[in-house]
Design a protein that fits this description.
Blueprint lengths: L18 H22 L18 H4 L6 E2 L2 E2 H18 L5 H30 L7 H31 L28 H19 L5 E4 L49 H10 L16 E4 L4 E4 L5 E2 L6 E8 L3 H15 L5 E8 L19 H14 L4 H8 L8 H11 L2 H9 L2 H16 L9 E4 L2 E4 L5 H12 L9
Parallel strand pairs: 7-8
Antiparallel strand pairs: 1-2, 3-10, 4-5, 6-8, 7-9, 9-10
């Protein structure tokens, strides 16, 4: 004792806050901040290091799911703020100032329930399969669960220590009376109150908003994009010579043939007959109306992007009044779910609307922005090349092949997809086209465009260029998609909604 003031014994576990639990909170909160920051800086082009290579975990898919955002903000950003607050609160607790110590406990009281509830919620989503399993996400949530328990134990022990410390010592007679300093042991945590309620309300709001209000499509205006977004495709290379022993092209059955007798051999058709055929087709015909050797340039994004609707895969007529450009990936779950939605919406506008499809791939084989292999995207470079080749050789068959590549939960392998395509179109022509470099060069050009549409990151799949805007992500319904088209394209339906 000195000048009547009690001094705390640093070896006495009752003198000060429970150091073990507080240090656990500090360390795990720091770990969670780092992991959340890594997830926040995630780029769809490169995957998350150390996650995609582990069986059963797909951080890329998890961070692209509907559960990865809250009120339009990535939950990883919210995680960084939450765990940074927990780290700050844990560092403030244990100071010899009642005000500072109390502020630290209040931060822990507010954020610990939020971390606990969010950990239970997101872990549960991954365990039951609603959200893809993410190793780093689970690690963050595990930190949150342990932090919440540690804070509860620390509060209980701190309160018990403060009660056992007793009143401050009284100065002996003959020594000037001074106000004794309150020791750390006497600083009991404040009673639970509004901050605890605020943390619980935050968790409830997180769950309710994610369930009731799924994320909306993100709108990128043309003014925020680069001035030149042109697709730089090299000049066509000469076709490869036909193989010496070419197998005969399979005959087209009446089922596969057009209802008007079209047999899929448009390249050999007489131009005059093809022109008459184009005029004779009606809106109900499943194949698009095309002009022989046609070309039509469509200007988008305030003139920053020009597309030749005859040069790329298209759903609908290249001569349609309104044109939407879709960027998609055959390995993307959202793209697979979106395709039937888009097709149902497209039916409402008949020949007034066409969708130019630009398939891209997140695979090291053709995407120079991908730093490591992503299992879900394996084989997508070849599938994208196949789709472009089909659209070049037999554009009227592209919708069928495109739909086949998007059927089911996963994309088919390249061999099965090629066999399906060759059942619809000329075997030799497709084989020759696949041997050329041009289809893959086009896919690489589509990838470059996608990178320029979302500076500093990869654009979310699927995305659509509608007039002067880019719509990122899939809509939640056919009605939402139609509303977006009608807003940004000024188009009206020709078929009433069902």
């Amino acid at each position: 004792m000195k000048n009547g003031a009690a001094t705390a014994d640093p070896t006495d576990s009752s003198a000060g806050p429970p150091a073990v639990e507080i240090w656990i909170v500090r360390v795990l909160a720091l770990v969670a901040v780092v992991l959340s920051g890594l997830l926040a800086s995630y780029s769809t082009g490169g995957g998350v290091a150390g996650c995609d290579s582990l069986g059963g975990f797909d951080c890329s898919a998890a961070l692209e799911s509907r559960w990865s955002v809250w009120l339009g903000v990535p939950v990883s950003y919210v995680g960084v703020a939450t765990y940074a607050g927990l780290l700050l609160g844990a560092c403030l607790v244990g100071r010899r100032s009642a005000a500072v110590d109390g502020a630290g406990w209040r931060l822990l009281e507010l954020l610990a329930p939020a971390a606990l509830g969010a950990g239970v919620w997101f872990t549960g989503l991954q365990m039951v399969g609603y959200a893809p399993a993410c190793l780093y996400c689970l690690a963050v949530h595990a930190c949150g669960l342990v932090v919440a328990v540690s804070v509860a134990v620390a509060r209980w022990r701190a309160g018990r220590n403060a009660q056992s410390a007793g009143p401050a010592a009284i100065a002996p007679i003959g020594i000037p009376a001074t106000a004794p300093k309150q020791t750390a042991a006497a600083l009991a945590p404040p009673s639970l109150g509004a901050p605890t309620l605020g943390g619980i309300v935050t968790v409830v709001a997180l769950v309710m908003v994610q369930v009731i209000f799924p994320p909306q499509m993100n709108v990128i205006e043309a003014a925020s994009l680069a001035d030149d977004l042109s697709i730089d495709v090299p000049d066509a290379d000469p076709p490869s010579p036909a193989p010496l022993f070419a197998t005969a092209s399979p005959a087209v059955s009446p089922i596969d043939a057009d209802e008007d007798g079209y047999d899929g051999e448009g390249d050999d058709a007489n131009p005059a007959d093809a022109a008459a055929e184009s005029v004779r087709r009606t809106r109900s015909t499943p194949y698009p109306r095309r002009k022989p050797n046609g070309s039509r340039i469509v200007s988008l994004l305030s003139g920053k992007l020009e597309i030749d609707t005859y040069k790329y895969p298209v759903l609908g007529s290249p001569e349609a009044e309104h044109v939407v450009v879709e960027l998609m990936n055959y390995g993307c779950d959202h793209c697979r779910e979106f395709h039937p939605v888009m097709e149902e919406a497209r039916e409402r506008y008949g020949d007034k609307l066409a969708v130019v499809v630009l398939p891209i791939a997140n695979e090291t084989l053709c995407n120079r922005y991908v730093r490591k292999a992503i299992p879900q995207s394996r084989g997508t470079c070849k599938l994208a090349k196949l789709a472009v080749a089909v659209a070049t050789v037999a554009p009227e068959q592209f919708p069928r092949v495109h739909a086949y590549l998007l059927e089911g939960e996963r994309a088919p392998d390249f061999t099965r997809a090629t066999i399906f395509a060759k059942e619809k179109i000329d075997d030799v022509k497709l084989s020759n086209e696949l041997r050329r470099e041009l289809p893959l060069d086009k896919v690489k050009a589509f990838i470059e465009l996608s990178m320029r549409l979302a500076p500093n990151r990869s654009v979310r799949m699927p995305s659509q260029i509608c007039g002067d805007t880019v719509l990122e992500g899939a809509p939640n319904s056919v009605e939402e998609l139609c509303e977006a088209w009608e807003k940004f394209l000024n188009i009206t339906p020709v078929v009433a909604s069902r």
